[in-house]
Amino acid sequence: MFDPRSIGVLTLSAALCLSANCSQAFDDATYPDLKGQWIRITPPGQPAFDPSKPRGRAQEAPLTPEYQAVFEANLADLAAGGEGLWPGYRCLPPGMPSMMTAYEPLEIIVLPEVTYILIDHIHDTHRRIYTDGREWPQDVEPAFAGYSIGKWSDKDGDGRYHLLEIETRHVKGPRAYDASGIPLHRDNQTVVKERIYLDKANPNILHDEITVIDNALTRPWTVIKNYRRNPNERPVWPEYVCAENNSHIHIGNENYFLSADGHLMPAKKDQPPPDLRYFHSTRK
């Protein structure tokens, strides 16, 4: 079956060739083989930010006392039937670093001056990682995926790249690490550093070592996410559109629920209705 993503890959390649000097051909063999569909390796159930530990408090996130209190309030809201701090229920993108949990499969496209990571979650989104040696720009519009600069390196000295090191800044919120609502600082000054590399023993396993530097943390927090390559050379790429059939409705600071017959319902016990000041009562 024809994969429409291939059009995008060819278009990207052609655009780069038109805008850059293509006299020096792109040597694909210099880079690791990252082709295919990558699926997260995690225990069953809702994935945690650190896949080696259970969700919630067991993640042992090194939060400051202030943000530990924010997290506890979030857990209390979840226990009462709310959605806590996770923005995904409103169909907002998870953003960096949580988007690398790969709730849906991801695809990596390596080009001479930029590497793309495509992730079809919430909506079809992507990361653009610049590997052209640029410096940080002075003025950047914050984005959920942030602004990423990367560098390929040859750690073994064999003339091939094995490691992609990335730094991501200028990330906007709201964000949380995972659906348990572990918070990032509201100032959105997060810096995310990554080391992406194939497993030496199994080239069908990919590792992403992620270190988060954030003002809600007492120290940098490092986790390793792992992905396996789908053995099917022509994998299925399902469309995931969060807004389709989403029953959650966010009004003010509250989350409500849309019933099957299209009526507004409370999401929590004894939850008051939203403010209806702009609606007139129906006259009988």
Give a written overview of the molecule.
The protein is mainly beta and about 280 residues long. The protein has two domains: about 25-230, Lipocalin (Beta Barrel), CATH 2.40.128.20; about 245-284, no CATH class. The chain contains two helices and twelve strands, in the order H-E-H-E-E-E-E-E-E-E-E-E-E-E. The strands form two sheets. It has a nine-stranded mixed beta sheet, with no helix packed on it. It has a three-stranded antiparallel beta sheet with strand order 10-11-12, with no helix packed on it. Strand 10 and strand 11 form a beta hairpin. The protein starts with a helix and ends in an 18-residue tail after the last strand. Residues about 5-25 have low confidence and may be disordered.
